[in-house]
Design goal:
18 helices, 40% helix, single chain, 470 residues, alpha+beta
Length: 470
């Protein structure tokens, strides 16, 4: 294309590492489709939501400035506009702006049991509804059919809100709910992953109606967004045929196990009882392998939803992970919401935290999104390929040869997972996926895991299988 805009580059750019030599940096959030009818959101061949341009002659005015991967306006700029004026505000390179941090969970009304970890996200949204701070909550809930297991919807009551608890590792988009907000007066709370919250903040800089109505954002700590291949692969490997999958509950809690040792529950179309399967027994659920990851996620440097008024994630810390009920790390950036939390603190179990502890809870994600991103940007820069503008700079400084190999292999794993799943789907044989990925995983483990640790892991798995079969 001649003189492409940044949003056109987001949709498709040269990339020697990608299958076919071109990659998309689109996360499929729908901000462009909300702004401009020349765009619409499709589900591509890899099961990812992606913007498509239906009118090449359209002006596309303002869409680049509202796309989280096309804009040069970063999280530091937005955070400064949103939060820096408050007394007692802190700032660091990992949390962004923050007033207070906690680790904890909800002790009342079953919120913890319904949630993925400590139940804090839904509880906070419910309090904002009950106190009349907002009139409605925009969040992800059960979708209408297996092709749309989960979609963005609007809840006006606490009972409606409860239907949207738990994390959904699934492709979603928000253009339709943004149109709903524009057409219906009210004060809204938006809940989303970092890039979606950033898109909301960018839209609110341009759209006075959205700015007036979307009063608050709650953010979810994000490792990466998954293609719908992830849900399908989990269900399929659990024993449910592809054409019988209704819905996957990605965070089914199992009693008397560490919080990290959770399961999935697969609902079936044939009316048979749901299947529950421990994620540790499935080949696709190791997040470090990055199977079915959106390419855009490898070009994001925001782990903690830095533009959200509050952010919640899993407390992956030794002192909390053994608790089967789950605990949240909590980052608060808005004084009003901090006061609301403190007013209802008797319903919570909270431990004071600090920025270092919050960082440690997500240290692997930060390493991949900061050091790994510097490596990926450097590789593209050396080849003269376009990438989104990020706060992280292209560099190999401090990145050992082994770590460079780790990051390179993660790109291979991501790409090959899509190839393998399409082949398995075509042959209607999931074992084809497993066998296709085995040599790539073996190569990755050789560079990522020291030999002694690989031996220990093998012994652990052997003992676990022996105890189960005993």
């Amino acid at each position: 294309m001649n003189n492409p805009t940044d949003i056109e580059r987001v949709l498709q750019s040269p990339d020697q590492d990608a299958i076919g030599g071109e990659a998309t940096y689109c996360i499929g959030c729908g901000s462009c489709a909300y702004l401009d009818p020349a765009f619409h959101i499709i589900r591509n061949e890899d099961g990812c939501n992606q913007a498509a341009l239906s009118d090449a002659s359209a002006q596309r005015a303002g869409t680049s400035e509202s796309c989280p991967f096309a804009t040069a306006i970063n999280e530091d700029i937005l955070g400064n506009e949103l939060f820096s004026h408050q007394d007692g505000i802190h700032h660091d390179a990992h949390l962004g702006y923050w007033l207070q941090t906690y680790v904890g969970y909800v002790a009342s009304d079953g919120w913890r049991a319904r949630g993925s970890s400590g139940g804090m996200v839904s509880w906070m949204a419910a309090k904002m509804l009950e106190e009349g701070i907002v009139d409605a909550v925009v969040h992800v809930k059960n979708g209408p059919d297996p092709a749309q297991m989960y979609t963005y919807q609007v809840s006006h009551t606490v009972e409606e809100l409860k239907q949207g608890a738990k994390s959904k590792y699934y492709p979603i988009e928000m253009s339709h709910v943004l149109s709903y907000i524009r057409e219906h007066e009210g004060r809204y709370l938006f809940i989303g992953i970092p890039c979606f919250v950033k898109a909301i903040r960018l839209l609110c800089r341009k759209d006075t109606v959205l700015a007036k109505r979307i009063r608050y954002c709650l953010g979810l700590v994000c490792g990466h967004l998954k293609s719908d291949f992830f849900a399908k692969s989990e269900a399929w490997e659990s024993g449910v045929p592809l054409d019988d999958i209704k819905r996957v509950d990605f965070r089914y809690k199992t009693p008397n196990t560490p919080a990290s040792d959770y399961a999935i529950e697969v609902e079936r179309l044939d009316g048979e009882p749901p299947i529950v399967k421990r994620t540790g027994d499935l080949s696709t659920t190791n997040w470090g392998l990055g199977y079915f990851k959106y390419n855009a996620c490898d070009y994001c440097d925001d782990v903690l939803a830095e533009t959200a008024d509050m952010t919640f994630g899993d407390a992956w810390l030794p002192q909390y992970v053994a608790d089967a009920g789950g605990c949240n790390v909590i980052v608060i950036r808005n004084r009003e919401l901090l006061d609301l939390l403190n007013q209802h603190r008797d319903e919570l179990v909270l431990h004071d935290s600090n920025s270092e502890e919050v960082y440690q809870s997500q240290s692997a994600g930060f390493r991949h999104r900061r050091q790994g991103l510097a490596y990926r940007l450097y590789v593209h820069e050396q080849r003269g390929e376009w990438t989104p503008t990020k706060r992280v700079k292209a560099s190999l400084d401090g990145i050992s040869d082994r770590r460079q190999q780790v990051y390179a292999m993660r790109t291979v794993l991501k790409n090959q997972s899509f190839v393998a799943f399409r082949k398995a789907e075509s042959a209607n044989d999931f074992s084809l996926f497993v066998n296709w990925m085995k040599p790539f995983v073996k190569r990755y483990n050789k560079v990522d895991i020291p030999f002694k640790r690989r031996v220990k892991n093998f012994i652990k798995k052997f003992i676990h299988k022996y105890m189960i079969n005993k």
